[in-house]
Amino acid sequence: MTYITKPKLHHPTLPANTLGLTRRDYEGKISTLCAGCGHDSISAAIVQACWELAIEPHRVAKLSGIGCSSKTPDYFLGQSHGFNSVHGRMPSVATGANLANRELLYLGVSGDGDSASIGLGQFAHLMRRGVNMTYIVENNGVYGLTKGQFSATADAGSKSKRGAVNKDAPIDMVSLALNMGATYVARSFSGDKAQLVPLIKGALAHRGAALLDVISPCVAFNNHAGSTKSYDYVREHNDAVNRLDFMPKREAIVADYSPGEVIEITLHDGSRLRLRKLAAGHDPGDRLAAINHIQSHQARGEVVTGLLYVDPGTEDLHEHLHTVETPLNRLTEAELCPGAARLAAINASLT
Ligand SMILES: Cc1ncc(C[n+]2csc(CCOP(=O)(O)OP(=O)(O)O)c2C)c(N)n1
Ligand code: SF4
Ligand SMILES: [Mg+2]
Predict the structure, then answer these.
(1) pTM score of the predicted model
(2) b/e string for 162-193 if b means 16 or more Cβ within 10 A?
(3) Where do the domains of the chain lie?
(4) What residues flank ligand 2, with Cβ below 6 Å?
(5) Does the 23-317 domain belong in CATH 3.40.50.970?
(6) How far is the CA of 153 from the centre of ligand 1 (A)?
(7) Could you please report the per-residue DSSP string of 10-36?
(8) Residue 251 has what pLDDT?
(9) For residue 114, which ligand has an atom nearest its CA?
(10) Residue 243 pLDDT more than 60?
(11) pLDDT score of 288 more than 90
Protein backbone atom coordinates (compact mmCIF):
# COMPACT_ATOMS: atom_id res chain seq x y z
CA MET A 1 0.00 0.00 0.00
CA THR A 2 1.25 3.52 -0.74
CA TYR A 3 -0.69 5.27 1.98
CA ILE A 4 -1.06 5.12 5.73
CA THR A 5 -4.36 5.90 7.44
CA LYS A 6 -4.11 8.42 10.29
CA PRO A 7 -5.32 7.41 13.75
CA LYS A 8 -8.77 8.91 14.41
CA LEU A 9 -7.99 10.14 17.95
CA HIS A 10 -8.42 13.90 18.52
CA HIS A 11 -6.83 15.84 21.33
CA PRO A 12 -9.76 17.01 23.51
CA THR A 13 -8.58 20.65 23.58
CA LEU A 14 -8.38 21.08 19.79
CA PRO A 15 -10.52 24.09 18.80
CA ALA A 16 -13.74 23.33 16.91
CA ASN A 17 -15.37 25.41 14.16
CA THR A 18 -19.07 26.33 14.01
CA LEU A 19 -19.89 22.79 12.83
CA GLY A 20 -18.13 21.35 15.89
CA LEU A 21 -15.34 19.95 13.70
CA THR A 22 -11.61 20.24 14.44
CA ARG A 23 -8.83 20.59 11.87
CA ARG A 24 -8.28 16.84 12.19
CA ASP A 25 -11.71 16.28 10.64
CA TYR A 26 -10.44 18.00 7.47
CA GLU A 27 -7.26 15.94 7.17
CA GLY A 28 -6.72 12.88 4.99
CA LYS A 29 -4.25 10.03 5.01
CA ILE A 30 -0.61 10.43 6.02
CA SER A 31 1.36 11.95 3.14
CA THR A 32 3.88 9.77 1.32
CA LEU A 33 5.54 12.78 -0.39
CA CYS A 34 9.21 13.70 0.27
CA ALA A 35 9.76 15.50 3.59
CA GLY A 36 9.81 19.24 2.83
CA CYS A 37 7.83 19.01 -0.44
CA GLY A 38 5.89 22.23 -1.00
CA HIS A 39 2.78 20.24 -1.94
CA ASP A 40 2.31 19.13 1.69
CA SER A 41 2.19 22.79 2.81
CA ILE A 42 -0.55 23.46 0.25
CA SER A 43 -2.55 20.49 1.60
CA ALA A 44 -2.19 22.00 5.09
CA ALA A 45 -3.40 25.38 3.78
CA ILE A 46 -6.46 23.70 2.18
CA VAL A 47 -7.25 21.98 5.50
CA GLN A 48 -6.92 25.30 7.34
CA ALA A 49 -9.10 27.20 4.82
CA CYS A 50 -11.88 24.59 4.80
CA TRP A 51 -11.84 24.30 8.60
CA GLU A 52 -12.00 28.09 9.05
CA LEU A 53 -14.85 28.36 6.53
CA ALA A 54 -16.67 25.52 8.33
CA ILE A 55 -17.33 23.76 5.04
CA GLU A 56 -19.19 20.48 5.44
CA PRO A 57 -16.69 17.94 4.08
CA HIS A 58 -19.39 15.98 2.20
CA ARG A 59 -20.11 19.13 0.13
CA VAL A 60 -16.64 19.08 -1.44
CA ALA A 61 -15.55 17.18 -4.54
CA LYS A 62 -11.75 16.89 -4.95
CA LEU A 63 -10.42 16.22 -8.43
CA SER A 64 -6.92 15.68 -9.74
CA GLY A 65 -4.82 14.29 -12.58
CA ILE A 66 -1.50 12.43 -12.27
CA GLY A 67 1.69 13.56 -10.48
CA CYS A 68 2.94 14.04 -6.91
CA SER A 69 0.64 17.10 -6.77
CA SER A 70 -2.30 15.11 -8.04
CA LYS A 71 -1.76 12.53 -5.28
CA THR A 72 -2.32 15.14 -2.59
CA PRO A 73 -6.16 15.08 -2.45
CA ASP A 74 -5.64 11.80 -0.59
CA TYR A 75 -3.90 13.78 2.17
CA PHE A 76 -6.69 16.28 2.93
CA LEU A 77 -10.50 16.24 3.29
CA GLY A 78 -10.70 12.49 3.85
CA GLN A 79 -14.48 12.72 4.28
CA SER A 80 -15.08 14.44 0.92
CA HIS A 81 -15.81 13.04 -2.53
CA GLY A 82 -12.69 12.45 -4.65
CA PHE A 83 -11.75 11.46 -8.19
CA ASN A 84 -8.13 10.92 -9.22
CA SER A 85 -8.43 11.07 -13.01
CA VAL A 86 -6.05 10.49 -15.93
CA HIS A 87 -2.94 12.62 -16.65
CA GLY A 88 -4.05 16.08 -17.84
CA ARG A 89 -7.75 15.16 -17.93
CA MET A 90 -8.94 16.54 -14.60
CA PRO A 91 -10.59 19.61 -16.22
CA SER A 92 -12.99 17.58 -18.36
CA VAL A 93 -13.93 15.33 -15.43
CA ALA A 94 -14.44 18.43 -13.26
CA THR A 95 -16.57 20.10 -15.96
CA GLY A 96 -18.81 17.03 -16.27
CA ALA A 97 -19.17 16.60 -12.51
CA ASN A 98 -19.95 20.27 -12.06
CA LEU A 99 -22.61 20.22 -14.76
CA ALA A 100 -24.22 17.15 -13.20
CA ASN A 101 -24.37 18.64 -9.70
CA ARG A 102 -23.89 22.33 -9.03
CA GLU A 103 -24.46 21.95 -5.29
CA LEU A 104 -20.96 20.66 -4.51
CA LEU A 105 -17.82 22.77 -4.11
CA TYR A 106 -15.29 21.67 -6.71
CA LEU A 107 -11.61 21.71 -5.80
CA GLY A 108 -9.16 20.66 -8.49
CA VAL A 109 -5.51 20.02 -7.65
CA SER A 110 -3.01 19.57 -10.45
CA GLY A 111 0.67 20.01 -11.29
CA ASP A 112 2.54 22.11 -13.82
CA GLY A 113 3.15 18.97 -15.88
CA ASP A 114 -0.45 17.86 -15.56
CA SER A 115 -1.90 21.28 -16.48
CA ALA A 116 0.76 23.03 -18.60
CA SER A 117 1.96 20.07 -20.71
CA ILE A 118 -0.41 17.18 -21.42
CA GLY A 119 -3.44 18.99 -19.99
CA LEU A 120 -2.88 22.45 -21.44
CA GLY A 121 -5.86 22.34 -23.82
CA GLN A 122 -8.16 21.05 -21.10
CA PHE A 123 -6.94 23.74 -18.68
CA ALA A 124 -7.56 26.52 -21.23
CA HIS A 125 -11.10 25.39 -22.01
CA LEU A 126 -12.07 25.04 -18.35
CA MET A 127 -10.95 28.63 -17.74
CA ARG A 128 -12.72 30.07 -20.80
CA ARG A 129 -15.94 28.20 -20.03
CA GLY A 130 -16.08 29.60 -16.51
CA VAL A 131 -16.53 26.28 -14.71
CA ASN A 132 -17.38 27.16 -11.12
CA MET A 133 -14.43 25.66 -9.26
CA THR A 134 -11.16 26.30 -7.47
CA TYR A 135 -8.24 25.09 -9.59
CA ILE A 136 -4.89 24.85 -7.80
CA VAL A 137 -1.72 24.28 -9.81
CA GLU A 138 1.07 23.08 -7.50
CA ASN A 139 3.84 24.52 -9.63
CA ASN A 140 7.40 23.24 -9.11
CA GLY A 141 8.74 23.61 -12.67
CA VAL A 142 9.42 19.89 -12.99
CA TYR A 143 7.74 16.53 -13.39
CA GLY A 144 8.42 15.47 -9.80
CA LEU A 145 6.79 12.06 -9.97
CA THR A 146 8.82 10.98 -13.02
CA LYS A 147 12.12 12.20 -11.55
CA GLY A 148 12.64 15.84 -12.40
CA GLN A 149 12.38 16.53 -16.15
CA PHE A 150 11.79 20.25 -16.92
CA SER A 151 8.11 21.05 -17.20
CA ALA A 152 6.56 23.69 -19.48
CA THR A 153 6.58 26.23 -16.60
CA ALA A 154 10.36 26.03 -16.07
CA ASP A 155 11.88 29.45 -16.74
CA ALA A 156 14.22 29.82 -19.74
CA GLY A 157 17.77 29.82 -18.38
CA SER A 158 16.95 27.90 -15.20
CA LYS A 159 19.20 24.93 -14.45
CA SER A 160 18.28 21.34 -13.67
CA LYS A 161 19.89 19.58 -10.71
CA ARG A 162 22.44 18.04 -13.10
CA GLY A 163 23.28 21.44 -14.62
CA ALA A 164 21.32 21.28 -17.90
CA VAL A 165 19.97 24.69 -18.92
CA ASN A 166 16.34 25.04 -20.01
CA LYS A 167 16.19 26.85 -23.37
CA ASP A 168 12.41 26.79 -23.89
CA ALA A 169 10.15 29.74 -23.09
CA PRO A 170 8.00 29.13 -20.02
CA ILE A 171 4.20 28.99 -19.89
CA ASP A 172 2.97 31.36 -17.22
CA MET A 173 -0.19 29.87 -15.73
CA VAL A 174 -1.61 33.12 -14.37
CA SER A 175 -1.13 35.01 -17.66
CA LEU A 176 -2.67 32.11 -19.54
CA ALA A 177 -5.66 31.97 -17.18
CA LEU A 178 -6.13 35.74 -17.54
CA ASN A 179 -6.02 35.46 -21.31
CA MET A 180 -8.52 32.61 -21.24
CA GLY A 181 -11.06 34.61 -19.24
CA ALA A 182 -10.65 33.20 -15.71
CA THR A 183 -12.41 35.46 -13.22
CA TYR A 184 -10.35 34.91 -10.05
CA VAL A 185 -6.61 34.65 -10.66
CA ALA A 186 -3.98 34.52 -7.94
CA ARG A 187 -0.43 33.37 -7.37
CA SER A 188 1.09 32.35 -4.09
CA PHE A 189 3.94 30.36 -2.57
CA SER A 190 3.64 27.14 -0.57
CA GLY A 191 5.95 28.69 2.03
CA ASP A 192 3.58 31.63 2.69
CA LYS A 193 0.56 30.20 4.51
CA ALA A 194 -0.58 33.65 5.67
CA GLN A 195 -1.04 34.64 2.02
CA LEU A 196 -2.23 31.28 0.72
CA VAL A 197 -5.06 30.47 3.17
CA PRO A 198 -7.17 33.60 2.46
CA LEU A 199 -6.54 33.22 -1.29
CA ILE A 200 -7.95 29.67 -1.11
CA LYS A 201 -10.96 30.88 0.91
CA GLY A 202 -11.65 33.63 -1.63
CA ALA A 203 -11.36 31.14 -4.50
CA LEU A 204 -13.80 28.72 -2.83
CA ALA A 205 -16.33 31.54 -2.34
CA HIS A 206 -15.91 32.90 -5.88
CA ARG A 207 -18.46 31.91 -8.52
CA GLY A 208 -16.65 31.03 -11.75
CA ALA A 209 -13.24 29.65 -12.71
CA ALA A 210 -10.71 30.48 -9.97
CA LEU A 211 -7.06 29.72 -10.65
CA LEU A 212 -4.43 29.59 -7.91
CA ASP A 213 -0.90 29.12 -9.25
CA VAL A 214 1.10 28.11 -6.18
CA ILE A 215 4.88 27.92 -6.49
CA SER A 216 5.64 24.72 -4.60
CA PRO A 217 9.31 23.70 -4.53
CA CYS A 218 10.27 20.10 -5.30
CA VAL A 219 12.99 19.36 -2.74
CA ALA A 220 14.08 16.20 -4.57
CA PHE A 221 14.65 17.66 -8.06
CA ASN A 222 14.29 21.44 -8.22
CA ASN A 223 15.44 23.18 -5.05
CA HIS A 224 19.08 23.93 -5.97
CA ALA A 225 20.93 27.12 -6.94
CA GLY A 226 20.03 27.94 -10.57
CA SER A 227 16.39 26.89 -10.16
CA THR A 228 13.80 29.68 -10.18
CA LYS A 229 11.29 27.45 -8.34
CA SER A 230 13.43 26.84 -5.22
CA TYR A 231 12.54 28.01 -1.71
CA ASP A 232 15.46 30.49 -1.71
CA TYR A 233 14.70 31.96 -5.14
CA VAL A 234 11.00 32.49 -4.46
CA ARG A 235 11.66 34.02 -1.01
CA GLU A 236 14.20 36.44 -2.50
CA HIS A 237 12.11 37.43 -5.55
CA ASN A 238 8.57 37.34 -4.14
CA ASP A 239 6.81 40.59 -5.02
CA ALA A 240 3.32 40.59 -3.45
CA VAL A 241 0.83 43.03 -5.04
CA ASN A 242 -1.58 42.88 -2.11
CA ARG A 243 -2.51 41.08 1.11
CA LEU A 244 -5.95 39.59 1.33
CA ASP A 245 -8.38 39.27 4.22
CA PHE A 246 -11.38 37.07 3.58
CA MET A 247 -14.55 37.74 5.55
CA PRO A 248 -17.58 35.44 5.43
CA LYS A 249 -20.81 37.42 5.12
CA ARG A 250 -21.69 37.13 8.82
CA GLU A 251 -18.41 38.56 10.09
CA ALA A 252 -17.95 42.22 11.04
CA ILE A 253 -15.09 44.18 9.43
CA VAL A 254 -12.25 45.10 11.74
CA ALA A 255 -10.80 48.33 10.31
CA ASP A 256 -7.05 48.19 10.62
CA TYR A 257 -5.84 49.89 7.44
CA SER A 258 -5.84 53.55 6.42
CA PRO A 259 -8.43 54.52 3.80
CA GLY A 260 -6.95 54.46 0.30
CA GLU A 261 -4.79 51.43 1.10
CA VAL A 262 -7.73 49.06 0.98
CA ILE A 263 -9.98 47.76 -1.79
CA GLU A 264 -13.09 45.90 -0.68
CA ILE A 265 -14.81 43.43 -3.00
CA THR A 266 -18.13 41.71 -2.29
CA LEU A 267 -18.47 38.24 -3.79
CA HIS A 268 -21.62 36.59 -5.15
CA ASP A 269 -22.40 34.81 -1.85
CA GLY A 270 -22.10 38.03 0.19
CA SER A 271 -18.64 37.29 1.63
CA ARG A 272 -16.06 40.05 1.24
CA LEU A 273 -12.45 40.32 0.18
CA ARG A 274 -10.38 43.12 1.66
CA LEU A 275 -7.23 43.78 -0.29
CA ARG A 276 -4.44 45.77 1.27
CA LYS A 277 -2.51 47.27 -1.62
CA LEU A 278 1.24 46.71 -1.64
CA ALA A 279 2.07 47.57 -5.26
CA ALA A 280 1.20 51.16 -6.14
CA GLY A 281 -1.34 51.35 -8.91
CA HIS A 282 -2.21 47.65 -9.11
CA ASP A 283 -5.95 47.38 -9.74
CA PRO A 284 -7.29 43.81 -9.29
CA GLY A 285 -10.31 44.69 -11.43
CA ASP A 286 -8.21 45.43 -14.54
CA ARG A 287 -7.36 42.28 -16.51
CA LEU A 288 -5.00 43.96 -18.99
CA ALA A 289 -3.12 45.84 -16.29
CA ALA A 290 -2.71 42.59 -14.37
CA ILE A 291 -1.16 40.88 -17.42
CA ASN A 292 1.20 43.84 -17.95
CA HIS A 293 2.21 43.92 -14.29
CA ILE A 294 2.92 40.18 -14.16
CA GLN A 295 4.89 40.11 -17.40
CA SER A 296 6.98 43.21 -16.79
CA HIS A 297 8.00 41.91 -13.35
CA GLN A 298 8.58 38.41 -14.70
CA ALA A 299 11.05 39.84 -17.22
CA ARG A 300 13.05 41.14 -14.22
CA GLY A 301 13.03 37.68 -12.61
CA GLU A 302 10.43 38.63 -9.99
CA VAL A 303 7.61 36.35 -8.89
CA VAL A 304 4.45 38.44 -8.57
CA THR A 305 2.06 37.02 -5.94
CA GLY A 306 -1.31 37.94 -4.42
CA LEU A 307 -4.80 38.30 -5.86
CA LEU A 308 -3.98 39.50 -9.36
CA TYR A 309 -7.45 39.75 -10.84
CA VAL A 310 -11.03 39.24 -9.74
CA ASP A 311 -14.39 39.83 -11.39
CA PRO A 312 -17.02 39.19 -8.70
CA GLY A 313 -20.03 39.78 -10.95
CA THR A 314 -19.36 37.09 -13.50
CA GLU A 315 -21.66 34.33 -14.82
CA ASP A 316 -20.56 30.72 -14.66
CA LEU A 317 -21.02 27.85 -17.13
CA HIS A 318 -24.43 26.90 -15.68
CA GLU A 319 -25.75 30.38 -16.43
CA HIS A 320 -24.32 30.27 -19.97
CA LEU A 321 -26.03 26.93 -20.63
CA HIS A 322 -29.26 27.60 -18.68
CA THR A 323 -28.98 24.28 -16.87
CA VAL A 324 -31.42 23.08 -14.21
CA GLU A 325 -30.59 23.85 -10.60
CA THR A 326 -31.43 20.37 -9.33
CA PRO A 327 -28.56 17.86 -9.46
CA LEU A 328 -29.23 15.39 -12.28
CA ASN A 329 -29.32 12.40 -9.94
CA ARG A 330 -32.30 13.94 -8.15
CA LEU A 331 -34.43 14.51 -11.22
CA THR A 332 -37.35 12.14 -11.60
CA GLU A 333 -38.07 10.06 -14.67
CA ALA A 334 -40.95 12.37 -15.58
CA GLU A 335 -38.60 15.39 -15.50
CA LEU A 336 -35.92 13.62 -17.50
CA CYS A 337 -38.35 12.26 -20.09
CA PRO A 338 -40.99 14.91 -20.83
CA GLY A 339 -42.89 12.61 -23.21
CA ALA A 340 -43.54 12.02 -26.92
CA ALA A 341 -45.65 15.16 -27.44
CA ARG A 342 -42.87 17.44 -26.13
CA LEU A 343 -40.26 15.64 -28.24
CA ALA A 344 -42.45 16.02 -31.32
CA ALA A 345 -42.75 19.76 -30.60
CA ILE A 346 -38.95 20.09 -30.29
CA ASN A 347 -38.45 18.17 -33.55
CA ALA A 348 -41.05 20.33 -35.29
CA SER A 349 -39.27 23.48 -34.11
CA LEU A 350 -36.07 22.27 -35.80
CA THR A 351 -37.52 21.70 -39.26
C1 LIG B 1 -0.59 9.67 -20.46
C2 LIG B 1 0.57 9.76 -19.51
N3 LIG B 1 1.75 10.25 -19.93
C4 LIG B 1 2.80 10.33 -19.09
C5 LIG B 1 2.67 9.89 -17.81
C6 LIG B 1 3.88 9.95 -16.89
N7 LIG B 1 3.75 11.00 -15.89
C8 LIG B 1 3.25 10.76 -14.67
S9 LIG B 1 3.23 12.09 -13.71
C10 LIG B 1 3.94 13.05 -14.93
C11 LIG B 1 4.28 14.49 -14.73
C12 LIG B 1 3.82 15.05 -13.44
O13 LIG B 1 4.28 16.35 -13.32
P14 LIG B 1 3.45 17.43 -12.51
O15 LIG B 1 2.05 17.47 -12.98
O16 LIG B 1 4.22 18.71 -12.58
O17 LIG B 1 3.40 16.85 -11.03
P18 LIG B 1 4.52 16.84 -9.88
O19 LIG B 1 4.89 15.40 -9.76
O20 LIG B 1 5.65 17.71 -10.29
O21 LIG B 1 3.79 17.36 -8.70
C22 LIG B 1 4.17 12.30 -16.07
C23 LIG B 1 4.77 12.84 -17.30
C24 LIG B 1 1.42 9.37 -17.39
N25 LIG B 1 1.21 8.96 -16.13
N26 LIG B 1 0.40 9.32 -18.25
S1 SF4 C 1 9.59 14.26 -5.98
FE2 SF4 C 1 9.39 16.46 -5.67
S3 SF4 C 1 7.21 16.91 -6.07
FE4 SF4 C 1 7.40 14.70 -5.69
S5 SF4 C 1 7.04 14.41 -3.49
FE6 SF4 C 1 9.26 14.60 -3.78
S7 SF4 C 1 9.66 16.80 -3.46
FE8 SF4 C 1 7.47 16.60 -3.85
MG1 LIG D 1 5.48 19.55 -11.26
Answers:
(1) 0.95
(2) eeeebeeebbbbbbbbbebbbbbbbbbbbbbb
(3) 23-317
(4) 33-34, 37, 39, 68, 140, 144-145, 218-221
(5) yes
(6) 14
(7) --TTS---TTS--GGGGB-SBP-SPTT
(8) 65
(9) 1
(10) yes
(11) yes
